[in-house]
Amino acid sequence: MQGVWTPDQIRAAERSVFARTPEPLVMRRAAFAVAAHSARLLAETTGATAGRHVTLLVGAGNNGGDALWAGAELRRRGAGVTAVLLAPDKAHPAGLAALRRAGGRVVEASGPGADTAGIGAAATDAVQRADLVIDGIVGLSARGSLRPVAAELVARVEAPIVAVDLPSGVDPITGAVDGPAVDADLTVTFGGRKPCHVLGAGAVLSGSVVVADIGLGDDLPEPDLHVLEPSDVGAGWPVPGASDDKYSQGVVGVAAGSATYPGAAVLAAGSAVQATSGMVRYAGPAADVVRSRWPEVVATGSVADAGRVQSWAVGPGIGTGASGREVLRHVLESGRPVCADADSITLFAQDPTLWDAREPDAAVVLTPHAGEFERLAGEVGPDRVAAAREVARRDDVVLLLKGNTTVIAAPDGRVLVNPSTHAWPATAGSGDVLTGLIGALLATGMDPWLACGFAAHAHALAAELAALGGAGEEAGAPIGASALLAALPAAIRTLRST
Ligand SMILES: NC(=O)C1=CN([C@@H]2O[C@H](COP(=O)(O)OP(=O)(O)OC[C@H]3O[C@@H](n4cnc5c(N)ncnc54)[C@H](O)[C@@H]3O)[C@@H](O)[C@H]2O)[C@@H](O)CC1
Ligand SMILES: [K+]
């Protein structure tokens, strides 16, 4: 599992480090890492570092300082380096001096011969002839998107971009962008990942992220967020052991769908069948359809007749009327962990007294999309992590907030983030598959917070595998939820083989 730290946590750790190690030395470490990774990328894309041209985009703060020191190091490795200063009066003085000593060239963004966009001729030339561009425009102190001159320069870049710490223009805390921003091929960050590397547009605009060690080590507190690695999910995925039988691996009850709309039932039950080797019970008006599609499911007409289960997946397609409410009340009274999705969420929003049916010790997972979240607790807003965390605490639930980045908050404040680099799961019925997956993992006794993280991971990978169908990333085709469901075993195999 990877940790993610807020800018405030990183700054506090840096202050402790500065008590032992002088600040300029820490900056040199950061810059050296930027230079080393830039040299590697240059070698990969052009075959060499020496003789290639690197252009630095340099803003007003220490982020620009890192870029300037990195430029000095690349110059020593034989690259031609030009720094384009966006705020000439505020450019980091020591970094600027180091670059000049190393034989680098310095030009102003709005220097002589400026065109209608306000960009000087030398700056345009430096950006256009670059083999690699280093983005040191703004870092942890960033506010808002790129300013016009920076945006115009960045728009003219055709070479690969290495972002220092984070892609400029992205909000460091939320990963959101509200205007032009750098789209980096590689981000070299320091001490630990920041939220913008895993949330919102920032997760995509960061490109690949490498974390350079600048000695923060023991000074970092518990991470603010966590990200599961594929290998974490693969290693922890429940598979049958030598002494297991169908009951010992957990029995999940699925209460979903209706006679008129049996699709949700078929998808949720099917996903539970494929998630683990335990047993799946179905309870509801779509029993005949579920049985004919999934003969291994033990299907009955109502939750009262379902028999013993270790968890419930409830909600998709049960309706928001009296019968849906009774189904939800029944599963809450069971004292088993419950994954409540779709209509269940609307039912909770309509009638908060439903919470009274809940056994205090039994975990409840809610899986709203933004619209369902709004019914529960108002608009999500730009800080999706804060929104999910607040409702998880308030309602004592594990809250999985759907979206391009899935955010999973536990009542004790822990947050898992599942950054998605594609939108293939955005299709009707996809949520029903997720509900079945979570329900099945809950039945194994897994920590509900982790169960959600595992499910979100496998779900996103299954969608990707189904959409790509063995073709390259550019050649995917839209899929429906049935194709996503069919790709679940392949996704689990892929995760277990990492
Ligand atoms: N404290 C340290 O010694 C270390 C800092 N490091 C670097 O320092 C960076 C943070 O440096 P700073 O706190 O000086 O701040 P930045 O370099 O992030 O920002 C500098 C200034 O840019 C302005 N600004 C804010 N948003 C802007 C925007 N959208 N467009 C243009 N200008 C904008 C603000 O006035 C801000 O104070 C980190 O991201 C990292 O790169 C690293 O060198 C590691 C050690
Ligand atoms: K940057």
TrEMBL record:
Cofactor(s) needed by this chain: K(+); Mg(2+)
Cofactor binding notes: Binds 1 potassium ion per subunit.
SUPFAM superfamilies: Ribokinase-like (SSF53613), YjeF N-terminal domain-like (SSF64153)
Domain YjeF N-terminal: 10-222
EC number: 4.2.1.136, 5.1.99.6
Pfam family, one: YjeF_N
HAMAP family, per database record: NADHX_dehydratase, NADHX_epimerase
Subunit structure as annotated in this protein's UniProt entry: Homotetramer.
Family to which the UniProt record says this protein belongs: In the C-terminal section; belongs to the NnrD/CARKD family.
Full protein name: Bifunctional NAD(P)H-hydrate repair enzyme
Biological source species: Saccharopolyspora gloriosae
Entry keyword set: ATP-binding, Isomerase, Kinase, Lyase, Metal-binding, Multifunctional enzyme, NAD, NADP, Nucleotide-binding, Potassium, Transferase
Binding site residues for K(+): 63, 135, 168
Catalytic activity: (6S)-NADPHX + ADP = AMP + phosphate + NADPH + H(+); (6R)-NADPHX = (6S)-NADPHX; (6R)-NADHX = (6S)-NADHX; (6S)-NADHX + ADP = AMP + phosphate + NADH + H(+)
UniProt GO BP: metabolite repair; nicotinamide nucleotide metabolic process
